TrEMBL record:
The keyword Membrane applies. InterPro entries: Cyt_P450 (IPR001128), Cyt_P450_CS (IPR017972), Cyt_P450_E_grp-I (IPR002401), Cyt_P450_sf (IPR036396), Cytochrome_P450_fung (IPR050364). It holds the Pfam family p450. Keywords: Heme, Iron, Membrane, Metal-binding, Monooxygenase, Oxidoreductase, Transmembrane, Transmembrane helix. This is Cytochrome P450. Heme binds at residue 501. It comes from Hypholoma sublateritium (strain FD-334 SS-4). The chain crosses the membrane at residues 65-86. Belongs to the cytochrome P450 family. Its cofactor is heme. One of its GO terms (molecular function) is oxidoreductase activity, acting on paired donors, with incorporation or reduction of molecular oxygen. It comes from the Eukaryota. Pathway: Secondary metabolite biosynthesis. CDD domains: CYP64-like (cd11065).
């Protein structure tokens, strides 16, 4: 071989050895020093890299160079890189570890560990392995689950300035609900939404403005249950929707076939499924939202096209209707008509449309779900039902229905409502909150943008707080004198901190009066089988952020002792 060629080959050899040593050193030292930040593994990695580099390319290395130039050059460059890597590692501000949780896989994180159904139960199991604060990742997104009330209070209430954001969910944007109260980021528009909702509902609540509306709608519910008891689940939805529609828009829902109700029902169905982390890949890989609906397999995109149309209808049509009625002078009193009359400009109308539709969206499914669960709780616990009916008979008698003035005198009914919200919380994982800044909690690092799930189910089924938590037992909320304990425990069902539910008082009042009135008027029992034996049907829920009860049968019969009231109710629509 000519000399010049030999020389070139040797240069390449040196170069290659040095580069490969340095490269391998770099990889090795990165891997070795990751969590331990220790220089000893780096030194070992460097040594291994040099040997490996030499063994990979022996054909390029002339024997005389092996002993001198190459190792010196490799050593020099490697030391520089070693110094730089070590310097970076050792001087990097040390951040605490993430909270404990299941070990993530490369790139996908814990995507395959994410529980497909009843995630709140799986998180309780994880809690027994990792503690009350659990961390996992899905494709690089951080998720923290809080299983204890103390942690939830500390983060959502005491550190509410950091923990009141919502995670961005691409599915919600695609469905046209990105600007609704429940999904707005923390900031100016959210403050306006909440101001409106709170002023409107709390002002109405304190002036008892909405109580006559609730009373009227409860009477309609009783009338419907008398007429078509088998449709009880449908009646619950009509009731909850009609309360919110009447208060917000002054609109009278026209029974089970009302157009707005049908639209809202379908919209909420799609929405609640789209909210669970891991429900669709789009929430973890937002770039997928750009896949067009015609693309094979783009099921969610196709669903979203009709979802968006329905969202627009829910947001625009009832509001525009009230705007027109207000101009005509025919508008019934409502939050929207009051606002339009009082406001001097139309500047906030878009925001108001979203806030109103949010009240309707958030207030309908939640209250209806709690009512349907109440029916199952009654057929599964006839002794509780009998106890509640006795209390109503003793205090109210048989000549009239209970009213809001009776509430303080009916502690068992109050306890029953608390137990209902505890036993099967309507939002078992609350709505996801998100962090606005990096934070350190109990020595663990929680980065900005982490989704935080408050496991309401876990705190309500903690045996340290609630004895036999799976039993339905209202008496746990009564003191030794039979009075309702003032423990504020039902508040947890409505969320925490700056995002707590603005419809809490309306929901509590609607549920209280409907439960008390239904118990006064009807006996609710398990259905008979072919042999005439009562058999308790299973109570299952569709898996979603608001798990919706799946249909079941029950027997709803008017109570003979209430014949006078029942006759009046039957007259209601004649
Ligand atoms: C049984 C009935 C209800 C339950 C259990 C319930 C529960 C909840 C929960 C747990 C949250 C999330 C709070 C958080 O993120 O910390 C929430 C939010 C919300 N609720 Fe309710 N709710 C009910 C009824 C209602 C009603 C009747 C309305 C309106 C009329 C309503 C309007 C809202 C709104 C607008 C939000 C979003 C608040 C925000 O993101 O700032 N809810 N609710």
């Amino acid at each position: 071989m000519p000399k010049s060629l030999r020389f070139d080959q040797n240069s390449e050899g040196q170069c290659l050895i040095t580069t490969s040593s340095v490269f391998l050193l770099f990889l090795n030292s990165l891997a070795a020093t990751g969590p331990k930040r220790n220089v000893v593994p780096m030194y070992k990695a460097w040594k291994r890299s040099c040997y490996l580099g030499l063994s990979l390319c022996p054909e390029f290395v002339p024997s005389n160079m092996l002993s001198t130039t190459v190792p010196i050059a490799a050593l020099a460059v490697s030391l520089i890189v070693l110094y730089l890597v070590a310097h970076r590692r050792l001087h990097k501000p040390k951040r605490p570890p993430y909270p404990p949780g299941p070990a993530p896989s490369l790139i996908i994180g814990n995507l395959l560990d994410t529980p497909p159904t009843e995630a709140w139960l799986a998180y309780i199991k994880w809690g027994s392995m990792y503690g009350d604060v659990i961390h996992f990742t899905i494709l690089g997104s951080h998720i923290v689950v809080l299983n204890s009330l103390d942690d939830i209070r500390e983060l959502f209430e005491k550190r509410s300035n950091l923990y009141s954001d919502r995670p961005h969910m691409a599915t919600i944007d695609l469905l046209g609900w990105g600007q609704s109260t429940a999904f707005l980021s923390y900031g100016g528009p959210l403050r306006k939404h909440r101001q409106f909702a709170q002023q409107a509902i709390i002002k109405h609540s304190s002036l008892s403005g909405f109580l006559p509306i609730v009373t009227k709608k409860v009477n309609t519910l009783l009338h419907s249950l008398l007429a078509t008891p088998d449709d009880f689940m449908r009646h619950h939805k009509t009731f909850s929707a009609s309360v919110v529609m009447a208060i917000v828009y002054g609109y009278d829902v026209a029974g089970v076939n009302d157009h707005f109700m049908a639209v809202a029902d379908e919209t909420m169905d799609i929405m609640t499924q789209a909210m669970l982390p891991g429900a669709t890949m789009m929430n973890v890989l937002p770039v997928l939202r750009f896949i067009p609906p015609w693309f094979p397999g783009a099921v969610f995109q196709r669903l979203a096209v009709s979802g968006r149309k329905m969202a627009k209808e829910m947001q625009e049509v009832p509001f525009d209707m009230v705007q027109k009625q207000t101009a005509d002078g025919t508008a019934a009193p409502s939050l929207v008509s009051n606002f339009i009359k009082e406001s001097k400009s139309t500047q906030d109308y878009d925001l108001l449309k979203q806030a109103c539709a949010s009240l309707y969206g958030a207030g309908t499914d939640t209250t209806a779900t709690a009512l349907t669960t109440f029916f199952h709780a009654m057929i599964a616990n006839p002794d509780v039902q009998a106890m509640a009916q006795r209390e109503i008979e003793n205090v109210v008698g048989n000549g009239r229905l209970p009213n809001f003035d009776d509430r303080p005198s009916l502690p068992y009914i109050g306890a029953l409502l608390k137990e209902l919200l505890r036993w099967r919380p309507v939002l078992p994982l609350c709505l996801p909150h998100s962090t606005r800044q990096n934070d350190v909690y109990k020595g663990y690092y929680i980065p900005k943008g982490t989704t935080i799930l408050a496991n309401i189910w876990a705190i309500y089924h903690d045996p340290r707080q609630y004895k036999d938590p799976h039993n339905f037992d209202p008496s746990r909320f009564l003191d030794e004198n039979g009075e309702l304990k003032d423990d504020n425990s039902e508040a947890h069902a409505f969320g925490f901190g700056r995002r707590f539910c603005p419809g809490k008082h309306l929901a509590s009042n609607s549920l209280w009066l409907s439960i008390a009135s239904i118990l006064a008027t009807f006996d609710i029992q398990a259905p008979n089988n072919a042999a005439g034996v009562r058999v308790l049907p299973p109570m299952d829920y569709a898996d979603a952020m608001i798990p919706r009860p799946l249909p079941f049968s029950c027997s709803i019969t008017p109570r003979a002792s209430m014949s006078k009231v029942i006759k009046e109710l039957q007259e209601l629509r004649k």
